[in-house]
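Task: complex structure prediction.
Instruction: return structure tokens for all chains below.
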Amino acid sequence: MQFRQNLKSWQELLIHAKDMKKQNIKDLFSENTERFNDFSLKVPAFLFDYSKNLITERTMKGLFTLARDCQLEQWREKMFNGERINTTEDRSVLHVALRDRSTKPFILDGENLTDKVNQALIQIKAFTEKVRMGQWLGYSGKRIKDVVNIGVGGSNLGPQMVTEALKQYSDNSVNVHYVSNVDGNQIADVLRPLDPERTLFIISSKTFTTTETMTNANTAMNWLVSAAFDQTAVSKHFVAVSANKENAGNFGIDNENIFDIWDWVGGRFSLWSAIGLPIALDLGFDKFIELLEGAHEIDLHFKNAPLEENAPVIMALLSLWNCTFLGSQSQAILPYDQPLHKLTAYLQQAEMESNGKSVNWYGEEVGYSTVPSIWGEIGINGQHAFYQYLHQSNNVVPADFIGSVKSITSVQGHHDTLMANFFAQMEALMSGVNEQQVREDLKAKGRTQEYIDKVAPHKVHKGNRPTNAILLDQISAKSLGSLIALYEHKIFSQGILLQICSFDQWGVELGKGLAINILDALKTNTELDNRDSSTTGLINYYKCKGR
Ligand SMILES: O=P(O)(O)OC[C@H]1O[C@](O)(CO)[C@@H](O)[C@@H]1O
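Output:
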């Protein structure tokens, strides 16, 4: 067992981090006029500028050495070859196979995955075209107008984020809606304006056991059946995406309308599979393929580019540097492109469910900070809400700024204003402004000495806050596919560097189990044994007041 802290490269980076904490990014720019060229990369679909991090050439050299000591390249190979790198669940991790459209056979456990993937795509194409062209008819013979995707986590966030991002490209053949929350308010709001005769439900659940999804699915079924007065209407209005065909069949969904998903595709990496049905329904199959192609382009980049020119690897190394070595606890994702308004929520699951863990591959406490908490908002809205904290709090929050050279909106006259903020905020976070500059500025503005003395300390921005810039040419299905895959491979690389099992999610199980237990007690009105007084007190209060 080779623990990360025992690696010489890790130890050297710890020492180097102590020195770097005394440095200032702004000074590093003054010392090296080529810094932007040295620390930026042009990848198909986007420019990645990481020069505004607290790094030097030595830092990067040390980080690449660490990556090699961690055998990142070999692990990358293992993933692409289908080795069972999801060790705690004994599974391969092959979402990359979903977007590899070559016809070359890929054999896993005696089965040709290429055939499976291509068959699934044929099924997705046939189904989505039938619905979009008005050939899929509801129980009363009417064409489908609205599609409701019922699913949660990975069975919701990816498709929703993508259809929101690409809605400018939708031809509105159907309207796509999402229900993820077990709170009945959401499904009530979604169903209120819909016509049962013209509504199709996709029950998206890899396991087909998730309580929230099953509760919503049953409500949707009752809504339909109470309008149709006919239980057999279910097969005309429900399809499923699931690995659990038995449960989906028992629900009343015809076998040919159950789309497969496999155990080598993790929920949070599944939008490329039939979980992406809402994407193909909303945008058409060709756009869905463009999305896959964009992702595949980054798969090839990740697989083939040397570590020094590999964007996902560099992103992972920087996150490790900022969090584990420099001590940041959180990371902001700040899209300056309204279409990406669901990206942060999507990445919260992708990154935090993957790497938000504290034991290593051998089940030992890692003894270092793993990943930061991910949060954020559309940049402009964030500027008027929490950027105060980014600029002046004691906590340094490294941030990813994501923008586009061209906007996809036809509205003119906004994009330069938006992007001026994109550039300015990164500059301000890095450069800051010291007290002397503040004082001189106030003096030049004719302020009194008393005012200057009072206000100057409050106007200081310490700066030295790291940011990455990801600048897309324009939001499109292809560039979005690339952007998502960039983060997926970053997450994979980070897991390897941290020696963490990125593809399980045991941390969600405890709460789920307790909720099932409590729900039973609520339904049967029984007392719960062995609970702490707070849990018991809260439940009793709820029972007394609510019933
Ligand atoms: O698709 P399913 O099986 O309903 O699971 C939904 C989500 O629930 C989780 O298991 C976490 O609770 C996620 O990993 C997953 O994306």
